[in-house]
Recover the amino acids of this structure.
């Protein structure tokens, strides 16, 4: 950890091994503080019933639905990084030295290139991400890091503080894992069942109406005619 300024001793970045780290996702550390990093995980999985929806409808990807050019494993962060790389190549015709690229791609090194990269990154941070269609995996595990620091004794020299600089990492609550399940509120079976119920109700009402019409149009008329003739015969007798 390099010394930065007068009060900072370095920085710490927590990242899983399948995701390219971001320059802006680190935390500064001060040399006169003692730090502990609290880790926990968040697991998300999705039901197979979500596959009938398109990715932009369910806001996630199943395994193999989206393949990246510059990264072996798909993650939302890797997808956003690749989106930025493609944008940089399209606009600046080169890539920054740390960006994954093919051998035929030129590395940006001129002053004009650097200005173009800065402008592209600013645009991407403000508006570009929404054009990337980078959704998380429907089933994934995310790790969260919480950094806690407390002030150490200020009587020791700065050189001694830096020499004895220490960061402890431990798992919170024996590595607590929160779980979240993604599933659709309506499936095809639910939709068919609901439509079938409504259709059956309408058909039932229609059949009752038909029976009533037949009754009043035929049976009731015939019954009235028979009753009238019987009364006429009784009168004649």
């Amino acid at each position: 950890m390099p010394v930065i300024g007068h009060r900072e001793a370095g920085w710490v970045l927590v990242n899983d091994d399948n995701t390219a780290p971001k320059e802006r996702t680190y935390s500064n550390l001060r040399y006169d503080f003692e730090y502990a990093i609290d880790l926990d995980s968040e697991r998300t999985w999705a039901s197979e019933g979500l596959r009938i929806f398109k990715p932009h409808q369910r806001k996630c990807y199943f395994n193999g639905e989206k393949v990246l050019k510059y990264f072996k494993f798909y993650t939302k962060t890797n997808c956003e990084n690749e989106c930025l790389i493609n944008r940089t190549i399209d606009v600046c015709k080169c890539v920054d030295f740390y960006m994954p690229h093919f051998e035929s791609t030129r590395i940006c090194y001129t002053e004009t290139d650097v200005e173009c990269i800065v402008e592209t990154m600013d645009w991407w941070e403000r508006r570009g991400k929404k054009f990337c269609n980078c959704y998380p995996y429907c089933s994934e595990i995310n790790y969260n890091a919480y950094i806690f620091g407390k002030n150490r004794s200020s009587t020791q020299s700065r050189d001694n503080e830096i020499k004895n600089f220490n960061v402890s990492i431990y798992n919170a609550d024996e590595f607590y894992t929160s779980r979240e399940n993604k599933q659709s509120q309506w499936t095809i079976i639910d939709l068919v069942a609901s439509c079938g119920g409504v259709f059956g109700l309408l058909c039932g009402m229609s059949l009752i109406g038909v029976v009533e019409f037949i009754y009043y149009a035929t049976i009731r008329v015939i019954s009235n005619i028979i009753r009238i003739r019987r009364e006429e015969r009784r009168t004649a007798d």
